[in-house]
Amino acid sequence: MYMYKSKRILLSLNVAVWNQCRHLSLSLGRLASHDQVASQPLSDTHPHLIRQGELTPEITSNEFRNRRTRLMSQIATSHDGMTHPHHVVIIPSATTQYLSQDVPYTFRQNSDFLYLTGFQEPDSLLILETIPGQPLPEHKAFLFVQPQDSHWEIWNGPRCSVNGAVDIFGMDEGREVVDIPLFLRRFHQHPHCVWYDYLKPPHDSFHNDISTNLIDNSYTPVKSLRPIAPEVHKLRVIKSEAEISLMRKSASIAAQSFREVLKYGRVGMTELEIGARMEYECKKRGAERMAYPPVVGAGNRGTILHYLANSHIASDGDLILMDAGCEYHGYASDITRTWPVSGNFSEVQRQLYDAVHRVETSAIQIVKPGVTLNELNNMTEMSLAAELESEFCVVSFVPCLLEAAFKTV
Predict the structure, then answer these.
(1) For 114-163, what is each residue's pLDDT tens digit?
(2) What does each C-alpha distance from 360 to 306, 364, 377, 396 come to in angstroms?
(3) How far from each other are the two terminal CA atoms of the chain, in whole angstroms?
(4) Which residues contact 337 (CB under 8 A, 6 or more apart)?
(5) pLDDT tens, residue by residue, 174-220
(6) N or C: which end of the chain has fewer CB within 10 A?
């Protein structure tokens, strides 16, 4: 008993000393860096990932600023933009999700928020506000961040300060999230067009603040309420050179990882083990996470579109279908491939594989500017129907595909 109490006392002393050292380290770190700290990699702290001038890998501060300006320019060309001078855009970050009680999932930022800010911390808010007397796209950008808390940061790492929101992330002003209700009440003075995803709010707590102090407040003259996500997505669909580079890297990582898994998989392995190997190979090459839970189906489970159990054993003679991709600094890849777990196709499997491969090759050749996704889908279905008819005498559903194609093209 005495030894047990002594160990507990010693452990408590060690924790106390460690906490004091961490407090001192955090304080000295802030003093030395003049608030140039954040929870995410920066060029000063992670030069192997981020070059000078970049805010996230390959994306510069200027590109993020230009995205916000382009968004306001897009609003200017809308009906509301041409008929009303006062606009406010509100985009919340994601919040931390929990596996159970106090065990968090790895945080992933709201894609629209990340696209406009480059900011990777949870429970933050972006507000873009028109400037009175100046036409769109002129605006002010406000980033609301969590207050700095030395006790919280001991456990979770540094937070960006309000000064960092300006100095690092290029905002016009940084404020703490506790200021949000009072800040929203500023818009009581003039009727504003509010651009906010009211029907699909990404953050419950902020949604309550926004609803109470701006949208549902009888004293707030909201001119109109419009969803902002469709406007952001119009921008996101056109990729910059930096984004194209990141997408290529994501696809390359996934493709290389697939090749390694093809060598690794063998009879007797579980689908889960094969999926785990894919995740390992992707992360080894720099991916942050999988783009979605891998689908690994052996045998007839490969025909289940969203099969996620991955609990069966791959048997001799099975084909394995794996649908997997990775996320590389916000940009995802998505690849599906099928192969024989034994390393050798049966005659029928080879016939079917070759037929699908011919359809894939012809579909890639069809892709060009001006071809819609519906047209590409219909052409692919027609090619599949033709292959099945010629190779396997399957003709029953061809007329249905023809009818569908003519209806949608």
Answers:
(1) 999 999 999 999 999 999 999 999 999 999 999 999 998 998 899 999 99
(2) 21, 6, 11, 22
(3) 81
(4) 258, 262, 321, 322
(5) 999 999 999 999 888 778 899 999 999 999 999 999 999 988 765 55
(6) N
